[in-house]
Amino acid sequence: MTTTILKAQGLGKRYGRRWALTDCTLDIPAGHVVGLVGPNGAGKTTLLKLACGQLAPTAGSIEVLGGTPGSSTAQLARVGFVAQNTPTYAGLTIADHLKLGAKLNPGWDDTLARERIARLRLDPTQRAGKLSGGQRAQLALTLGVAKRPELLILDEPVAALDPLARREFLQGLMEAAVEQELSVVLSSHLVSDLERACDYLIVLVDSRVRVAGEVDELLATHHRLTGPRRDPARLPADQHVITASHTDRQTTLLVRTDAPIHDPSWTVSQISLEDLVLAYMHEPADTGHRPVLEVQR
Question: Which residues does the UniProt record annotate as the domain ABC transporter (predicted)?
Answer without folding.
Answer: 6-231
